User: Fold this.
Amino acid sequence: MGHLVHAAVAQAVRAKLHTWRGLWRDFTGESAYEHYVERHRREHPDHEPMSEREFWRDRAAFDEDNVSTGCC
Assistant:
């Protein structure tokens, strides 16, 4: 019986860690490309999404062109 409890606790911990990892990846922007591909395939199934390299270059260029000073 103790083994089953241990296995259930371990599974619950893994599930929580998986959830927290996903939240952390969203918070840091690490999952941005995956979200982009999901949305692109759903909304534009007629053509391929950008490659990951193109996506990050495009995002960096956008950030450089749209600098916010945090004011007004």
